[in-house]
Amino acid sequence: MLRVPAGAVFGINGSTGCIVPTSNNHGNTPVKVSIVGGELGVSLVQADSEDIASISNVEIGSGLNNLTCE
To answer: Which DSSP state fits 53?
Structure first.
């Protein structure tokens, strides 16, 4: 499970959405995640197809403009 700023999760549909890792050369590609909880501006997410432990930074703000969550 990974704690990210709530504003880092976009394209939310039900309990799924995307984040954009900026660490470990992920190439700023959106990663689909399941939202498992949240509190005080933080979302708890997990990803099925990504090693979530390798993510240390995520994109927020205008860096998410024009991206799609598929």
So the answer is: G
